[in-house]
Amino acid sequence: MARRLPEMRVTWFGDDATLVEGVSRDLRHALVLSVRPAWLREVVCVGEDAMLYLQASPRDREISADRAALHTVICAWLYAVGQGETAFISQKPKTHACTVRYGGEDTDLEEVARRVNLSVSDVIARHTSQTYIVDAAGFVPGFAYLEGLPDSLYLQRKAVPRVQVFPGAVAIAAGYTGIYPSASAGGWWILGTLVDPLPGALWQWDADPPARLGFGDRVVFRSVDA
Fold first, then answer.
1. Strand partners, 139
2. How far is residue 213's CA from residue 67's CA, in Å, rounded to a whole number?
3. What pLDDT score was predicted for residue 57?
4. Could you tell me if 149 and 175 are in contact, meaning their C-beta atoms sit under 8 angstroms apart?
5. Are 129 and 150 a contacting pair, CB within 8 Å?
6. What is the pLDDT along the chain (226 residues), one digit of tens a residue?
7. Which of 7, 32, 132, 210 shows a CA-CA span of 20 to 30 A to 110?
């Protein structure tokens, strides 16, 4: 049976991009992983929105002489992707097991436990109980935003970010968890340190692809003391 797609809003951003609002998680992943039609250059997803960057300005293409016609083409592609009718450019999502040493110097584990009104052991248990999904990537190479954090561990970003977070820091903020692949500034709450794989494996310039955690991949955390 064909799935009914949720209502989405498609609006133009200048001449060479459209914003799609109200995109479900599964559809976001499918949009990024699907084979690009000739008119589409790139897809960037953040939250429940997807920005579609077109190959060239509409004024440069015959079909775009009628913007409504191109709008129809875009909507038809969105529907086809949502129905699973398009091929994928990537392999099926992988599952990555990450071993973490929770707590320790320069972490916020005890403060997190206090703020969410749980014991330290409960915070660890809840963080390791989930299978997370790579939902986005940014702000430094190799940093993946992992969706699936339990509501009981929800905290906003720190009011005062650290000037430098150590490589391999496993942290949470704003409903996400993530691993800092390299030293950088950061405002997330640090729960522990990645032990395996080593932080340097999360981003390797000479690898193909350079990011170990790909869009849509699954990530599970295990405590080194478990």
1. none
2. 37
3. 54
4. yes
5. yes
6. 334 455 788 888 877 888 898 888 788 878 888 888 888 888 887 778 888 988 765 554 555 456 777 788 888 888 888 888 777 766 678 899 999 999 999 999 999 999 999 999 999 999 999 999 998 887 788 899 999 999 999 999 999 999 999 999 999 999 999 999 999 999 999 999 999 998 888 988 888 778 889 888 999 999 998 6
7. 132
Place of tokens 């909507």: 75
Phi, psi of 221 (to 5 degrees): -105, 140
Largest CA distance in the chain: 63
DSSP class per residue in the chain:
-PPPPPP-EEEE-TTSEEEEES--HHHHHHHHHBPPPTTEEEEEEETTEEEEEESS-GGGSSGGGSHHHHHHHHHHHHHHHHTT-S-BSSPPPPEEEEEEEES-TT--HHHHHHHTT--HHHHHHHHTT-EEEEEEE-SSTT-EEEE---GGG--PPPSS-EEEE-TTEEEEETTEEEE--S-EEE-SEEEEEEEES-GGGGB-TTSSSSBSS-TT-EEEEEETT-
CA dist 211 → 45, 176, 195 (Å): 17, 18, 18
pLDDT at 226: 62
- Phi/psi at 199 (5° precision): -55, -35
For 207-219, b/e burial (b = at least 16 CB within 10 A) is eeeebbbbbbbbb
Q: What single-letter amino acid sits at 186?
A: G
